[in-house]
Design a protein that fits this description.
Layout (H helix, E strand, L loop, with lengths): L3 E7 L3 E7 L5 E8 L11 E2 L1 H19 L6 E8 L4 E5 L9 E2 L7 H8 L8 H4 L8 H11 L3 H6 L3 E5 H9 L9 E3 H4 L14 H7 L8 E3 L8 E2 L11 E7 H8 L8 E5 L3 E8 L10 E6 L7 E8 L3 H9 L9 H6 L9 E3 L17 E3 L7 H27 L6 E4 L6 H11 L3 E4 L4 H14 L5 H7 L2 E5 L7 H14 L9
Parallel strand pairs: 1-5, 5-12, 9-10, 13-19, 19-20
Antiparallel strand pairs: 1-2, 2-3, 4-7, 6-8, 11-12, 13-14, 14-16, 15-16, 17-18, 20-21
Helix pairs in contact: 9-14, 10-12, 12-13, 13-16
C-alpha cells in the first residue's frame, strides 16, 4: 500500500522533489539550482531543457533518499514558478526559445500598446489582473512576434504553450509520446488569458493578443480525481504513478498553510514575496493594486478565489548581494552581517529590479538605494536589504486590509527566509501583528502534495490538512513602534524615488 505522496516544486532558482507521509512530514528532499540567464538589462530567462533535466535528477535522488519505489507513492503533485513562459514543439519536445521568466520586463512596450485602448486595467474585470510584464500572455505574444518560424508553427498546431507546470506535467506523463497538455485554474489565472470563472480561456483576449488557441493547454482542477495522466515506467519515478495535483507556487503554499477558509492569509518569502488572502467563492475586485486570482479548485467543488499581493524581489535581493556584490558567501550569511549593526544607518533599499509590482504596478521603476553617507558600511547594506522585504510586505498588507475590510490579526509565513530571526522579528514590528512559522516551512511542495493526495483519497478531506498544520515559532511585535511609523514613512518616501526611471521609446 502506498505510504507517501511526492511533490515536484519547480521554482525560480531551483527545483526540488519532496516526499511526504500522511502526517504531512517530509521524509526526503533533494534540490538543485539552475542557471539564471540575463541576455539584456531587464531580461531574465531559463533553459527549459535544463529545468527538465534537473527535475528528473531531483526526483531520482529524493526517491533514493526515501528508500521508496513507485508502488510506495500514491500520487504526484506539481507546483511551479508562475507566469514563466515556455513554448515548445509538441512533436519533438524542444523549446523554440528559452523560457521567459516572470521577472522579465521585455514585454513593456506590448503592455503599453495594449493599454492605449482602455488603460492598464483594460482586462481587469475579466481576468483580475492589470496589464503588466509579469503575466504570461504578453510573453507568448512577444515570442510569436520575435522568434523565427514560431508563428507559422503555432498556426500549424505544432507549437504549444505552458507555464512551467504544464511543461513539467507534459514531460512527466510522456512528452512527445502523448504527454498531457494541461494546466490548472491557478496557473491559467496568471496568463491574463483565462476568464475568472476558472473554466475557459477568454476568446476575445486571446484574439487581441494574437495567440492561436491551439497553443493553450486544457484547464483542469488543481486537485483532479480524473487524473492528468501517469508517470512512465521508464521515467524518473521508476513506474506508473497518478499525476493529479497542480498549483502555482503561491496558491500551493496557501493550501500547505491550511488557509482554506475565507479571511485566512499567508506570506511566502522566496525569490519574491507573495501574500494571499483566501476570499472563498467570492471574486473580490481590488481597488488597491492587488490581484484578484484563483486560489484553488478541488475536483468538482466550486473554485475558491483570493486576493494576492505580489512583490518581485525579496530573497533575490540577498542573492544579488551574494552573487553580484560578493558581500556574503552564502545567502544565510546575510543575517549575521546585518547583526553587526544596530540599524540601517539611514539607508533604504528599494529593489525595483523588475519594476514595482503590488500595489504600484510601475514597470518603468528601477531599484534605488537612498540615504547614503560615508557612515554606511556593508552591515547596513545587509540590514537594509532585509528591511526592504518587511517594508514591501507591509505595503501589501495595508492594501489587503483596505480591499477586504478585515484587519489581519496574525500572519502565517513560509519559505526560505522565515529562518532568518532578525527579519521575522522586524516583520512583526513593521506589521504590528504576530508572525507565525509552521512546523513544515516548505509549504509550497506540501500544498502540491495535498492537492495530489486529496485527488486519490490519500487524505480523505480538507480537515486532514488542517489537522496536520502545526505552529513552530511566533514572533510578537515589540513595544517600540518606530518600525511601523518613522521607518516605514521613510521607506514610503524612498519608493517614490524609483518612479519613472525608464524612459519610454
Amino acid at each position: 500500500m502506498a505510504k507517501y505522496v511526492a511533490a515536484v516544486d519547480q521554482g525560480t532558482t531551483s527545483t526540488r522533489c519532496m516526499i511526504f507521509n500522511h502526517a504531512g512530514e517530509s521524509v526526503a528532499l533533494h534540490q538543485m539550482e539552475h542557471e539564471q540567464i540575463y541576455p539584456k538589462p531587464g531580461w531574465v530567462e531559463h533553459d527549459a531543457m535544463e529545468i527538465w533535466a534537473r527535475t528528473q535528477d531531483v526526483i531520482k535522488e529524493a526517491m533514493k533518499k526515501a528508500g521508496a519505489k513507485a508502488a510506495d507513492i500514491a500520487a504526484v503533485g506539481v507546483t511551479n514558478q508562475r507566469e514563466t513562459t515556455v513554448v515548445w514543439n509538441k512533436n519533438t519536445g524542444k523549446p523554440y526559445h528559452n523560457a521567459i521568466v516572470w521577472q522579465d520586463t521585455r514585454t513593456d512596450k506590448i503592455c503599453n500598446d495594449l493599454a492605449k485602448d482602455g488603460g492598464q486595467d483594460r482586462f481587469r474585470a475579466q481576468v483580475g489582473l492589470p496589464l503588466a510584464t509579469y503575466f504570461s500572455g504578453p510573453k507568448v505574444k512577444w515570442m510569436l512576434e520575435n522568434v523565427d518560424g514560431l508563428r507559422e508553427a503555432a498556426e500549424k498546431g505544432e507549437a504549444v504553450f505552458g507555464n512551467i507546470d504544464t511543461w513539467v506535467i507534459w514531460n512527466l506523463t510522456g512528452g512527445a509520446k502523448g504527454g498531457a497538455h494541461v494546466t490548472d485554474v491557478t496557473n491559467a489565472s496568471r496568463t491574463m488569458l483565462m476568464d475568472l470563472d476558472g473554466t475557459h480561456w477568454d476568446d476575445k483576449i486571446v484574439n487581441i493578443m494574437g495567440i492561436p488557441k491551439s497553443m493553450l493547454p486544457e484547464i483542469r482542477p488543481s486537485s483532479d480525481p480524473k487524473l492528468y495522466g501517469h508517470t512512465l515506467e521508464d521515467g524518473p519515478f521508476g513506474g506508473r504513478i497518478p499525476v493529479c495535483g497542480d498549483l502555482g507556487d503561491q496558491q500551493a503554499a496557501t493550501v500547505g498553510q491550511a488557509c482554506l477558509s475565507p479571511g485566512e492569509a499567508k506570506n511566502t518569502y522566496g525569490t519574491g514575496c507573495f501574500m494571499i488572502l483566501n476570499t472563498g467563492t467570492d471574486i473580490v475586485p481590488s481597488k488597491s493594486g492587488l490581484l484578484t486570482t484563483t486560489c484553488y479548485k478541488f475536483g468538482d467543488e466550486p473554485t475558491v478565489y483570493a486576493l494576492e499581493g505580489s512583490i518581485a524581489i525579496t530573497g533575490a535581493l540577498v542573492q544579488w548581494l551574494r552573487d553580484n556584490l560578493k558581500l556574503i558567501e552564502k545567502s544565510p550569511d546575510v543575517e549575521d552581517l546585518a547583526k553587526t549593526v544596530e540599524d540601517n544607518g539611514g539607508i533604504y533599499f528599494v529593489p525595483a529590479f523588475s519594476g514595482l509590482f503590488a500595489p504600484y504596478w510601475k514597470s518603468d521603476a528601477r531599484g534605488v538605494i537612498v540615504g547614503m553617507t560615508r557612515y554606511v558600511n556593508r552591515g547596513h547594506f545587509a540590514r537594509a536589504a532585509l528591511e526592504a522585504t518587511a517594508f514591501q510586505t507591509r505595503e501589501v498588507l495595508d492594501a489587503m486590509n483596505k480591499d477586504s475590510g478585515v484587519d489581519l490579526t496574525a500572519l502565517k509565513v513560509d519559505g526560505g527566509m522565515v529562518y532568518n530571526d532578525l527579519l521575522m522579528q522586524f516583520q512583526a514590528d513593521v506589521l504590528g501583528v504576530p508572525v507565525i512559522r509552521p512546523k513544515v516551512a516548505e509549504t509550497t511542495a506540501l500544498g502540491a502534495a495535498y492537492a495530489a493526495g486529496l485527488a486519490v483519497g490519500f487524505w480523505a478531506t480538507q480537515e486532514d490538512i488542517r489537522t496536520n498544520w502545526g505552529m513552530d515559532k511566533t514572533w510578537n511585535p515589540s513595544a517600540d513602534d518606530a518600525a511601523r511609523t518613522t521607518l516605514y514613512a521613510q521607506w514610503k518616501k524612498a519608493v517614490t524615488r524609483t518612479f519613472d526611471w525608464v524612459e519610454q521609446e
